[in-house]
Specification:
single chain, Rossmann fold, alpha/beta, seven-stranded parallel sheet
Length: 440
């Protein structure tokens, strides 16, 4: 039955291939972000096969997964003494990886599509000693090819969203064969462990090691980011002009309006001694945010990339739009309070821990299923607030801006939460190192 199911799966992919190529070529010609790495995904290649031969292939989808994998990759290289090469899916993930991991990995490339020919080319070109997926993307053909070649498949920081889990359950007759080929699933929590078990991962191949996102910034990294952020702070005159700074990060359409409304209400009530740093999730949305601020709010603003090129008077604007990739985490260090987007609209949320690394209170919406365990801990430890609407957002921001006791308590609790949960990356590296030694 296994061969039959894979035959059907590949037949469907073959039928869809011409339409898929036409659509992607259209996106490519329009320079749409969805075409990022299109040719590299169809015909994967490696510039230097000798260096990558026998190395470790790590896969991280986008910025969130790449960020979670940074400490893990550094520890992995040190422990195994093998070269590491990293694949990503999104353009922003590629840029972030280039900026933050260029010295830690041998090669960064776009992950191949799961067509038999592209997956086969990638595996044959890379010749990895193992394949490690950060969090969870299941690619049946790629996993099957790996197993046929005797290459172990590991998933670390393993998680499955409720919607993905239900999809895999509905197609369990097929995906059971895929999940059985996973040699290690190092899960974030017991609830995810149960999901992987039900989908077919063997009990001996599954374990709970915690969430690597808590290792996203080590103490030395935090100090470095703080120093880098001081440069931005000086350019913005944030530190000298006011200590009331709101950083709204990874926002999506609909959330900028909520944040701006709260910001205006706060300035009307408390005076114009507040700064707002607004960072849309995707750089291509900066133009939309600019238009929103100009046409609806009539507020003066400046883009982050312009800061080094303006005079001191210009830097005193109260609103800064972040139009650069990979700088948000350091900007959180300038915050009095942080709002993390993708959570008041139905996107599942983004990394809630980044503000906590710097001891900053965090606010987020109710759509937080991608970070549910972290959100539950933040709420239970009183280091942040979940809000449901504009009024609750305004009240939460106001609380952390003007109640020093509430802000200090949240900061201390946040640091404790980070400290208690560190160490998942090292656990995963030790597990993988042991498995590779036993296979050798």
């Amino acid at each position: 039955m296994r061969s039959f199911y894979f035959f059907i799966y590949n037949l469907l992919l073959f039928i869809l291939l011409p339409f898929f190529v036409i659509v992607m070529l259209f996106f490519y010609l329009k320079k749409d972000k969805r075409s990022a790495g299109f040719f590299g995904k169809i015909f994967p290649y490696f510039k230097d096969k000798i260096k990558t031969d026998g190395g470790i292939w790590v896969h991280a989808v986008s910025i969130g997964e790449v960020s979670a994998s940074i400490n893990f990759i550094k520890l992995l290289r040190e422990a195994t003494k093998k070269p590491v090469y990293l694949s990503v899916v999104t353009k922003t993930g590629y840029r972030y990886a280039k900026a933050n991991l260029k010295d830690a990995v041998e090669h960064i490339f776009y992950f191949p599509y799961d067509f038999m020919f592209s997956a086969e080319i990638a595996v044959r070109s890379a010749r990895p000693s193992c394949f490690i997926s950060i969090e969870t993307e299941i690619w049946p053909n790629l996993i099957r090819i790996m197993k046929n070649k005797g290459i172990p498949v590991f998933i670390v920081n393993a998680r499955l969203s409720e919607s993905s889990y239900r999809t895999y359950l509905r197609l369990k007759a097929f995906f059971n064969y895929v999940f059985k080929d996973i040699d290690l699933a190092a899960c974030i929590s017991e609830s995810y462990l149960e999901r992987f078990l039900k989908l077919g991962v063997r009990r001996n191949n599954i374990v709970v090691t915690g969430n690597m996102k808590f290792d996203g910034a080590q103490p030395e990294d935090i100090e470095k980011l703080k120093k880098e952020a001081i440069i931005y702070g000086s350019l913005m005159n944030i530190i000298l002009e006011t200590d009331k700074v709101i950083v709204a990060g990874s926002t999506h359409e609909g959330e900028e309006k909520l944040v701006l409304d709260a910001f205006l209400k706060l300035t009307e009530k408390n005076g114009k001694n507040i700064k707002l740093i607004l960072a849309p999730r995707h750089p291509e949305r900066v133009k939309y945010v600019e238009a929103l601020i100009l046409n609806t709010y009539k507020l003066p603003f400046i883009k982050l990339s312009q800061l080094p090129h303006i005079n001191n008077a210009g830097s005193k604007k109260c609103l800064i739009i972040v139009d650069e990739v990979g700088v948000l985490s350091k900007l959180y260090s300038l915050a009095s309070v942080a709002f993390v987007g993708g959570s008041m609209v139905n996107f599942g949320g983004h990394n809630l821990l980044e503000p906590l690394f710097f001891g900053k209170p965090v606010i987020f919406g109710k759509y937080i299923y991608n970070f549910q365990e972290i959100a539950d801990e933040i709420i239970s430890k009183n280091t942040g607030i979940m809000v449901k609407d504009f009024n609750e957002l305004y009240e939460a921001v106001s609380l952390f801006l003007y109640d020093e006791n509430a802000s200090l308590k949240a900061a201390i609790n946040g640091q404790k939460l980070i400290s208690i949960n560190r160490g998942s990356s090292l656990k995963n590296v030790n597990l993988i190192s042991d498995l590779l030694v036993h296979q050798a």
